Amino acid sequence: MLWRKTQSPVCFTRLKPVPVWCRNIAETRGQDVIELENVAYSYGGGELLSDVSLKLAPGSFHFLTGPSGSGKTTFLKLCYGALVPAAGHARIFDRDVRAMTREDVAMARRRIGVVHQDCQFLDHLTMAENVALPLTVAGRDVQAEAGNLSELLAWCGLTPRAEALPPQLSGGERQRAALARAVILSPDVILADEPTGNVDWEMSQRLLQLLIELNRMGKTVMIASHDLGLIRAAKQHVQARVLRISNRRLQLAGADL
Amino acid sequence: MRPPRFLTNVLAADASADRVVPPSGFTAYLTLFTSGVMAFLAVFALALSLATGRLADRWGEELAHASTVRISAPEDQMNVQTEAALRVLSTTEGIASARALTAEEQRALLAPWFGPDVPVESLPVPQLIEVIETPEGYDAAGLRLRLSAEAPGAVLDDHTRWRRPLIAAANRLRALGLVSILLIGGAMAAMITLAANAALAANSQVIEVLRLVGARDAYIAGAFVRRFTLRALIGAAAGCILGMLAVLALPSQDEAGFLTGLGFQGGEWFWLLLLPPVAGLVAFVATQRAALRVLGALS
Questions:
Q1: Per-domain residue ranges of chain B
Q2: CA nearest A141 in B: which residue?
Q3: Which residue from A86, A90, A245, B292 could staple onto A66, CB 3.0 to 4.6 Å apart?
Q4: What is the rounded radius of gyration, in angstroms, for the C-alpha atoms of chain A?
Q5: pLDDT of A6-52, one tens digit each?
Q6: For residue B204, what is the nearest residue in chain A, using CA coordinates?
Q7: What is the pTM of this model?
Q8: Does the distance separating the beta carbons of B214 and A109 come in below 8 Å?
Q9: Beta-strand relationship, A34-43 and A95-96
Q10: Longest dimension (CA), chain B
Q11: B210 to chain A: which residues are within 8 Å by CB?
Q12: Do A136 and B16 touch (CB under 8 A)?
């Protein structure tokens, strides 16, 4: 079974210390990491999201689904402070986005790992350097954390491709590298926008497994996906809430999911 | 004396942080070329300004304390009137010395126009008397009256008439040189701002990725600012060295005639050492402002 075959021993066996990048931050326990309250957002005069409310509790697992263009990506951007709601309140780690300076938003993003469907990388850096980019911008000593980095690359099955440039990576490798980059700072929350959009079924299962493992480590995970098969497969392994954006509003998905 | 903090921050850059911005691109060459050319031009503007400054000072100094008495008289009265004028001058308060120029000296004065072999003795040229003033100076109106009485062919030229416009012209040239340096600095700032804007626009995806992983605006701006500042420093240093070589290659004082003194003398060469750091400072300010403006405008 793919799940068993690819399961990483790194964080589940306690034979060695849990690496820094997969430790949960204890202080987020008990308070909502992201909270949207009656949020609305408009693009070019047309309202895309309306009266959306949601609380992401620490350690929770959410799927966000809905048709293309329904506002899933916009919703995620509201969750990590890339967009400011037109109405309502968005709170990230208990701070209203409107009251946050650009510096605050940058600091908050170090606690939120984001995986985009198009997996943007810096093409002049190697894959390992791209994965370590959050460490670099945070002013951490990448050399000192080389052990954690190589362990993370191994966990994602990327060790042989560490020195490859992003254009040389396959779609699945890019998605796993994006995931590795998203978690290297041990964020409290992982937001993934169609993380399996460009990969085959087997690779999508492998990526999903990585995200489930991260959730078991205590990370809050939200995956935006229109792939209902993927969501059904995930629900066999993790207790996840499935949300759907429909007619500009956020609602719990039906029992079929 | 410790260097400014911003300069140490720029020079003590984190190599890994610098790598986040792609290294190549036409903006790199544009910045190097612009700062090099501007430094080269600035060397000449500085040379012009310093040389005209020296010229103005020298003219002012020399002409302010020297006058000329010109004796235009029939040949048989020339010596009599010259001696009479010298007597008047020797008894005038405010005049340190007065002497009649020799035929050789007068020939040297006419040489630029008539050549070295002009027979001054056979030409009806006036006799010139060089008058050196004391620092307090003399009463020019009173002296003219006394000369007209004792030597009717004597005309006092205290140089005022043509000294003022010459000094004014030299001073304006000096100001023009300084203004040119300011304009060169402004043009360099404009060019580097354009290059920085182009670099930021070309690297919008890099900026997006950096923001996604939690980079602060100061970090992103810093990566660009360091790069442009160092390029400007290097370009300006190269332009400055080429400019110095070009100034050294100018004709020497003996050959140049009018161009005498265009260049640097003594401690003036040290002014050139300031050009690269100033170019770096201009690039630093221009890139910093451009980067923060562009980053502020991005969502």
A1: 5-60+164-297, 73-152
A2: B16
A3: A245
A4: 18
A5: 333 333 323 334 444 444 433 444 578 999 999 999 988 788 899 99
A6: A122
A7: 0.71
A8: yes
A9: unpaired
A10: 101
A11: 133, 137
A12: yes
